[in-house]
Structure formats: C-alpha cells, structure tokens
Write a structure and sequence with these properties.
Elements (H helix, E strand, L loop, with lengths): L36 H5 L8 H20 L3 H23 L20 H18 L2 H10 L2
Helix pairs in contact: 2-3, 2-4, 3-4
Length: about 150
Amino acid sequence: MNKFDYTLDFKTIDFRQQPELYRVGKGEQGVLLVEPYKSEILPHWKFRTPDIARQSAREIYALFLEYKEQGDFVGMDMARKFLQMGYTRSRRYANHKSGRKYAKDSKVILPNQEDPIKAESAKIFYEMWQLAKSDPEYVVMLDRHTK
C-alpha cells in the first residue's frame, strides 16, 4: 500500500483533476484533506443516533456509487474512508461517552462505558463500510491505483 503523502499542498490540489497524486494510505488517512471530495462528502457525515447514522451512511454510500459510475477511484476511496470514519468515531463514543479514550494528560485508557445507541450507529456504518470496501470494482481499482 502506498503511504499517504502529507507533504502535498492540499489547499491547491484538486484530486479530481490530478488523481495520480492521491495515495490511499492506511485506514482513514487524509479523509479531511483531499478535495473536492472532503467538501462533497463531509456534509453528509453524521452519527448522533442510529436514524441519523442510517441516513448518513446511505447518502455516503450513494456518493460511493456515483463515483463508481463515473470511474472515479479517488471519490470511491474517500467515500469508503468516511464510512470507515463513521464506524470508528461512533465506536469511540459508544465506548467513551465523552469521546475521550485516554485520561487527561495521560496515556491511561479510560474504562469503557457502553452506549448502545452509539454502538448501533457504529454497526450501521460498519456494514456500509464493508459493502464499499468489498465492492468488486472498487477492489480492482484499488489494486490498479496502488501499483
């Protein structure tokens, strides 16, 4: 996997026009940097309740399918990253009501306090994330882009 390149000038690059500059990286790397995708997807990203998460995940997955129809791998990957981030952030709040994993000024992990509502939101995003990342066209395009 190509490492995400944080040295690029993200304020000036349009990755739709220059997809060859895009690096997938690991997990959610660059999810809040890569334009114009960040601006297109971020307004749909919400997870406060399962109903909101369901709507959000559907909208982001619909964007994934639009990017797929356009043959836009970068858009597909960014939508996949937002779905993954919906899962990881919901999970964090499901485990820690404050959203803080660590005690203040410490590396001590706070005890989990399971929030079933956020856990359900996480499950919704997880299912859509798995659907996106296992999409056969996405898998082929990912392989092609990372070579």
